[in-house]
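Check my protein:
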Amino acid sequence: MKKLIILSILAGILFSHNSCTDIEGDGISTIVYNGSSVPEDSSYRNPVWNFDLTNASVFLSSGPFYAMGEEKEWAPGIRYVVPVLASTNLMNWSLIAQGEAFTEKPEWAEGDLSSVTAFFSKSLGMYYIFYKLGDEGLGAADARTPQGPYADYGKFTDSEELDVTEITDPFVYASGSTFYLFFGVPGEGIFGVRLSLIKNTLPTVSGTKFKIAGPDYSGSFVRKKGSIFYYYGTKNGEIVIGQADNIQGPYLDNTGTDLIQGPGTPLVMPTDEFQQLGQVAGIHSDYLDNDWILYTAVETTIPTLPTGDARYVLMLNQIHFNANGWPSLIIEARSGFCSPRFKN
């Protein structure tokens, strides 16, 4: 029946096209196509992933984009240890066949696996996952393919080695052969430290930690564009940014205030639809070199999963920068159709 309907529609299109041919000289001789008016052809819909992907990390492989999140029980009996999604365009996501990055959960500590950072290291030719396991420390795993399965190396550092009371929201920055770990310390702020990463070897901390933001920041994400390093973090429910000439800072907002003391420059604001803006999952550029931000937020109409845990959905928005690299438009976290579409 569906085939008959499709054939009927196609026949109608062909007939209507032929019926516009000017035979007698008093009809239509030219047809101008102005594009589709169907919303899906010119826009996309937020949230781009409407299940849960808490503390997400989105990266580009040699083919599609991949997104990973922390361990969560989406419904009673349905638990994923690092769920893995795939997308060709950042706007449409689906769970991969095996569903998760590990065939077996790492067991070097008790508790849930959280705060995932995933990326491809071109210099090492491997895909990496960095994560936090319970309260015992940070672990690392690698794989030859973006979907895994990932081989776990175990714990590579903890709060004792870093000489802090607690590690929160760890994020690993990777660029070429340069790697940095950024993390929060409750009541103190956001710190960074260099990592030594050698193929097929447990990562190690290298050098002395440094501070880049104050105690009210969380969900750190660092990216370099051109010669500028950008820090993205969550503060007072908003996603804010700062800029630096060096990865170790100082990171300043658009008033010139250091993020160690200052509030940062607003980029994404919560709304009545979406609260508790979470970690920046990734920032990717389209073919016109426009930047797009992926982040998580709690939808107020369905704020929790069936298990009672907070439900963080994945959002996508274009960033509009001015000539000085600061946001010219503050993004409001809202549902519905957004335009333009991401084009890679």
Notes: The CA atoms of residues 33 and 228 lie 43 Å apart. The first strand starts at residue 44 and ends at 46.
